[in-house]
Design a protein that fits this description.
Elements (H helix, E strand, L loop, with lengths): L1 H18 L7 H12 L16 E2 L5 H5 L5 E7 L4 H16 L7 E7 L6 H6 L7 E5 L10 E2 L7 H12 L18 H5 L1 H4 L4 E7 L5 H8 L3 E2 L1 E7 L3 H7 L6 E5 L5 E3 L7 H9 L5 E2 L7 H6 L16 H15 L5 E2 L1 H17 L4 H15 L6 E2 H8 L29 H19 L6 H13 L3 H14 L6 H19 L24 E3 L5 E3 L1 H11 L13 H32 L8 H9 L13 H8 L11 H9 L20 H18 L25 E2 L5 E2 L7 H10 L4 H9 L8 H8 L5 H36 L3
Helix pairs in contact: 1-2, 4-6, 9-11, 13-17, 14-15, 14-18, 17-20, 24-26, 26-28
Length: 809
Amino acid sequence: MGKMARRCGRATSRFSEEHEISVGMTATAAFVVCLCLAFPPAAEAGLYTASDQIVLLSEQNVGSVLVNSSAAMVVEFYASWCGHCISFSPIYKKLARDIKEWKPAVNMAAIDCAADENVKICMEYKIRGYPTIKFFHANSFANSLGMPYRGFSRDVRELRHMIIDSLEYPGDPWPPACPPLEPTSEAEINNFFETNTVQHLALIFEDDKSYIGREVTLDLLQFENITVRRVLDTEEHLVSKLGVTEFPSCYLYYPNGSFERLVVKFEVRTFYVYALQRLPGVVRSGKPPPVFTELLKNRTEEPWRDFNSSRVYMADLESALHYSLRVELALQSVINGQALTALKDYISVLAKYFPGRPVVMNLLKSLNTWLQNQNKGPISYEAFRERVDNTAQVPDAALPEGVRWVGCQGSQPHFRRYPCGVWTLFHVLTVQANNIGDSDPKEVLKAMRNYIHNFFGCRYCAQHFENMAREGLDVVTSLPSAVLWLWYRHNRVNNRIAGDLSEDPFFPKIQWPSPEMCPSCHTVKDNGEHSWNEAQVIPFLGSHFSSSRILTDYLEDEDRILETQRAKHSRLLQESLGQKHVERIVREASNPITSPPPSSVQEGVEDEGPQEEEEGPQDETEAYEEDNEGGEENPAPAASDRGHQRTHRIPSIIGMRLHPRREDIVDLDSFVNQHFKAKALQLAASSLVKQRTLQTKVEQEPRPAFSLGMELDAGLGMVGLQPVDDFNELNSIHQGKGLKKRELAGQYFKREAEFDHRGLWMSVITIGFSDLDISLCVILYALSFTCLLAMCVFFRSRLRRRRFKFALP
């Protein structure tokens, strides 16, 4: 019960710090927090996670890991409530990262003895206190209890030496993958290339107490075409032959008997390993050597772009933004809750610290303003994407579409690219925040953490980043420390994924910056261990990611970006308006009596926006006024328009001039006629009309003299219109062939209807009458017929009654 209380106390305290819960939480809330955090899922239980490169033992895998294993195992038995275990866990994690390359020969594991399911296992291995570290040699038996490390140090270097001593313990089985660690002799070196085909033999000269030779040998265990041997200073003849005067020192020995010294800044393990890994032909096992000719091809559709590896490119930053905002966020159709808050923080940080070009910064600021005003629940990604694409037409604002990787190129399409761009983007943001100053040190890091947690596509990667943020973000207390935190975590990730399938062989994962790039960033402690000189790392990062040193090579021109954006918006607008007009015309055709008055039709035409002038003197308003004579008084037409106006006048019957129609009655003929012209002018001006030839031969076909082929082309407006200078010319063609406007309307709304010759006569009869006039005539005719029929029936019944009376006697 006490153990549970202690775990609950730690869990509640951790939850309060991470989620800013007040001290006065209720007892029920505290108990729920205790259950959720003190006893989390097994994958997250204890002091270690899978991202620590430590095997987590359990009842299910302890047998397969410790028994008959091909590698030696170093196991920590701990209790998650033990204070000493908690303080020792960072050292054990650091040791796991330090000897990661030893894994084929030595691996590390841990088990939480405080978990109920593991108590029996810890009892079987005779664990009496915590933490306990035991070494299990390769091919251990099932009843092996392991060799305990008594009085082990809290120094990683000493723990590393203890593991090497355990490997060399007399009588224990040797791991099959482990190379020989004992000193070599001159005779063996002389005959080495007769039995080996490697390209390089590295000889490390040292004294008997030094561990550098054995450490470097294990560090290069996973690399091919190189072999490391240690030579003691007692090999006087070989030392004299090569002229060795310093211990330790490293020499390269070649098959022809020649040799040369390996030049490094410090004669220590880390510098030896870094230099030897970069020798020609040295590659990680299982990976082909990088070939520059293949790299030039890049095996992608994009050409290879030469770049300077010591500089940052704006093209990579803009490509990362494009993929983040247009691709990765698109996976969430609706964004709300914590995800929406994370998105707001992310865009806010970008708008404040991203060192982009003016057009990109204008877009980010506009997007941030719009996003911060979204306080009423969730937003759809479609609405967010419209703002990213600047459909609101904010002046001089755009984000280039597509990716154009430069410094983040990979030798294969699946290498580097977006992950590299994201890391570069976050480094730039932290450095910019540090250079500007006067802000929350954790502002950028929190925005990064929440974005990765909610949106980053690689969920396994997101979980690893969350683990790092959870355990160490509280150490950030200043802006420089935020820059260092991100740099240090990036190197941890490089260490973890070095050698994975995701590693580009031409760009191996290293601890960055390299000694060549920043010699002053590397230093050595008194005990010979490598150390980072943080006083030099901070100015290096500030200079490397500074906005003044970002290269603008391979960027698309800003004017071209804006022109492409305007063309895209114009095309989308035409598609949208064309589709809306088609739907509206079809809807109005289904109920012509309730069609809108001329004023609304006129407004619908004008709302389409300004149109480019086409051949013909009339605009859309004049066309509509000519189709509706007797309405509002029109100004006198120009001389060039009179011919068109005469051909478009409403005809008269037997010399009788027709009465002008009211404004509240819509003539379907003129309504359709006007829409035909408006649509023809609009589509011709926008170059979206495909020219087709009108079929005008009545004698050869049973179809009408004029056929207007109406089609829907990709959601746009009408296609199939023959280009004419003026819509009145088109109407005169109809009249000259005997086809009136009512047939034209019927053909528009009923494209597939067969032409009936009786329509010619009906069109003549109905010239000058509206649909309402015809409807009234039909109704009066029906009423008259009904009255006449009733009178006929009445008088016939009266006549029958009189005949019946006359027939009575």
